[in-house]
Amino acid sequence: MEQARAAAAIGPGDEFEPLAAVWATAEEWWGGADVEFLAELVNELRGMARRALADGRDKYCWICL
Description:
- This protein is mainly α.
- The chain has three helices and no strands.
């Protein structure tokens, strides 16, 4: 968990667009999702990870589709 938090916190934003594109193809989205929305969401999660890392805290994300 700590490694994922650190990786998410320091990763450059341009790496998240491909991640969002892959995530948008997940079966749970029932035929696809808006890649731009998911990229924005991943970027917001990165911000949360940065704040958690700076504060010495963990972060948890639960998504229910």
